[in-house]
């Protein structure tokens, strides 16, 4: 394996609103959400409660992580690249974050995190939710005060920009133009909150999140002009 690939940990997170019942928020948080909602509303007919269910999971102050899926490249016995994936998921956010942190510590300080739009979303979201859950940040996630260009972790969306400042480019769009199999089936990021709270199907969310990690790793390899990982060389643990 090329040395630069050994320490990369590909990851994706799935988040939902902190609660399915807006009315169960304490009064201080309700007030704070109403203030934020005033900037997010697309029309006067949209209530703070409706917007909470639609958008709260995007913000670490009003959302929580229910799944972190990771993937790591390895030398498959076939002589080709392989990918091992693992998911940390559950209803108890603190527990899954502690387990994820334990894995990061074991990987050591050389680990390089890679996510799509990770510098704007995944990395800071994980940091914020760890602090909310009274979990000290591991060295690899201690990003406080750093500018995006000072963060050594990798971001495939940033790689695609090549230094320009164009708008957001989705992982699914890049997978499409590079002819990488999509992770999208009957669920996408916009449906995670309803799948979690209305259907209670955490397993479906975990599978979707893990599929995104495979797409992410394949995209990274494509952007490095390297061969893709074959389906038979993907191991899910």
From TrEMBL:
Predicted 3'-5' exonuclease PolB-like domain location: 62-225
Keyword Ribonucleoprotein: no
Cell wall biogenesis/degradation as UniProt keyword: no
Pfam families, per database record: DNA_pol_B_exo2
Gene3D superfamilies from the UniProt entry: Ribonuclease H-like superfamily/Ribonuclease H
GO molecular-function term, one example from the UniProt record: nucleic acid binding
Record field: transmembrane: none
Keywords of the record: Exonuclease, Hydrolase, Nuclease
InterPro entries xref list: 3'-5'_exonuclease_PolB-like, RNaseH-like_sf, RNaseH_sf
Listed CDD domains: DNA_polB_like1_exo
Official protein name in the record: 3'-5' exonuclease
Organism: Chryseotalea sanaruensis
């Amino acid at each position: 394996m090329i040395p630069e690939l050994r320490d990369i940990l590909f990851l994706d997170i799935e988040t939902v609103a902190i609660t399915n019942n807006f009315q169960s928020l304490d009064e201080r948080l309700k007030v704070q959400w109403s203030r934020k909602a005033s900037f997010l509303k697309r029309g006067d007919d949209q209530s703070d409660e409706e917007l909470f269910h639609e958008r709260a999971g995007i913000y670490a102050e009003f959302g929580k992580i229910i799944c972190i899926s990771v993937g790591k490249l390895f030398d498959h016995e076939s002589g080709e690249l392989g990918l091992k994936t693992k998911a940390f998921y559950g209803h108890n956010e603190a527990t899954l974050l502690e387990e994820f942190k334990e894995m990061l510590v074991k990987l050591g300080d050389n680990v390089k995190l890679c996510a799509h739009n990770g510098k704007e979303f995944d990395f800071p979201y994980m940091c914020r939710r760890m602090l909310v859950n009274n979990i000290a940040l591991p060295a690899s996630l201690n990003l406080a005060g750093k500018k995006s260009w000072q963060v050594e972790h990798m971001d495939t969306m940033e790689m695609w920009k090549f230094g320009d400042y164009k708008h957001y480019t989705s992982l699914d769009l890049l997978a499409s133009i590079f002819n990488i199999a999509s992770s999208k089936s009957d669920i996408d990021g916009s449906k995670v909150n309803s799948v979690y709270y209305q259907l209670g199907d955490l397993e479906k969310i975990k599978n979707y999140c893990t599929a995104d990690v495979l797409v992410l790793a394949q995209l990274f390899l494509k952007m490095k002009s390297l061969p893709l990982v074959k389906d038979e060389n993907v191991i899910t643990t």
